[in-house]
Amino acid sequence: MIPSRVFAIVLRQFYLLRGSPVRLLPMIAWVGIDIVLWGFLSRYLTAVAGPRFNFTAALLGAVLLWDFLTRVMQGVTTAFFEDVWSRNFLNLFATPLTVLEYLAGLVTTGVLTSLLGLAAMLILATTVFGLSFFVYGAALAPFVLVLFLSGITLGVLGTAIVLRFGPASEWLIWPIPSVISPFVGVFYPLSTLPGWMQAIGKALPPSYVFQSMRAILAGQPADWGALALAGGLTAIYFVLAFAVFAAVYRFAMRTGLIARYSAETAG
Amino acid sequence: MTAPADPVLTVSGLKKAYDGLIAVDGVSFEVCPGEIVGLVGPNGAGKTTTISMILGVLEPSAGQVRIDGADLSTQRTKALARTNFATAYAPLPGNLTVEQNLRVFGLIYGVKNIKGRIEALLADYDLQQHRRTKCGLLSSGEQTRVTLAKAMLNHPKLLLLDEPTASIDPATARDIRARIVASAKTDGCGVLWTSHNMYEVAEVCHRVMFLARGRILLQGEPEALIRQHGVANLEDLFVSVAHERLGAPAGHAE
Q: How many angstroms separate the CA atoms of A39 and A61, rounded?
């Protein structure tokens, strides 16, 4: 892997963000709105139920962590969509750039842009609503790692779907986090769900993060076994997502999909 | 007597089939350093499919592509680092400025002294005044010049041009042709040029290949082909090939 080629992909995204600050707005605005909405809801529930349960850490913390995963995923997919929207595939893939270098560039971009959103969320949640991440203790590190890698995995999988099924399938990608969130129990235990939904939830690593988060807030120790399982599942899905993208890329090369994407340029 | 230079492009038995439909059928040819070769043919003849396979964005069903000695299927990065291309149908991202696009692609191609190279190309292609203009705001002619500047970034050994002057007025097209010919001469790169403009092909190409239904029907120097087939010009020859009225002379058909 040649770092300058990875840097080229990141630099392109940096130029886009610098040239059009409107692109920065969604990275901060939507997560900001979420934090404000759930922050006030947490405050209201605390006022109604009293200080017996930490609603701020349970609800606002969950929203923040889930939004973090969503931002990471969308950071990767949006960087890819920029190439879809500008029909840039022929220009990129008819160069010495390798698939791995391209993906590494997208992931690096996703990481950097999601950090912007995370910073905005943290500032709002801690300063305005008094959320403290210290309540999660050392488990916060695996929480963030699992959600971060899951976000990248979903992002790479989303790009593979769009590469395979064309630009119109972009609209299948945006709602993926919303579709997954009921299954992973962001706000409630998996036991609340019917059996078939629980089975799906148990196969999704973020479920173990939110389960552990609630256990800690209930005064129980972190379930390190469950977090280790989440880590293992995340690693498997992470590798699988890259393998799926590589397979779709090979399919696109064999069938001329890359050329078809660029052919739309003439239209 | 000096030995002939090794070809920068060797295409052997190249074939592409989609679900039984053969788009390119066993095409073989070479392009030597400094040589400008025209690849012409009617719509659907297989020109863009051939170019796509040489660019590595379409996997051949059979055959081999070697660029400056590197096998494209096994040494893809090495082969494509020595290649570049320009096509009217794949402009650079319109939301980046001229300078930004050149820097991004310069990094991808591993260009040394990238700043100096960009300055030289901005001067060569008369783009200095547009360096901070987003490419999408440029005229067709200006966008083509930017695409060509990108194509010259890495001093390619092989330059692929797919209808580089399509949709451009005759004066601008002439200017662009002159720049390509000058760059090819300076860098000594081999050029494979597709076009539907036979006057353009006759003007710039040392050799021309006529492709129809995925096969090279004839090839040779433009003037020699015109004489050989008793036609008034290359355009008449093109029409004959397109209608397949031509009996290919021995030694020319593939």
A: 9
Whether residue B110 sits in one domain with residue B149: yes
| Cβ within 8 Å, pair B59-A253 | yes
A23 and B CB contact within 8 Å: no
Query: Do B114 and B58 sit in the same domain of this protein?
Result: no
More confident of the two residues A7 and B242: A7
Minimum-distance CB partner of B89 among A15, A256, A266 = A266
How many domains does chain A divide into? 1
List, for residues A139-167, the tens digit of each pLDDT value.
Answer: 889 999 999 999 999 999 999 999 998 88
pTM more than 0.90:
no
- CB contact at 8 A, A262 and A93: no
Cβ under 8 Å to B: A residues 94-113: 94-98
Cα A183 to Cα A188, A218, B207, distances in angstroms = 10, 21, 64
B97-131 pLDDT, tens digit each: 999 999 999 999 999 999 999 999 999 888 999 99
Return the structure tokens found at A253: 């090369």
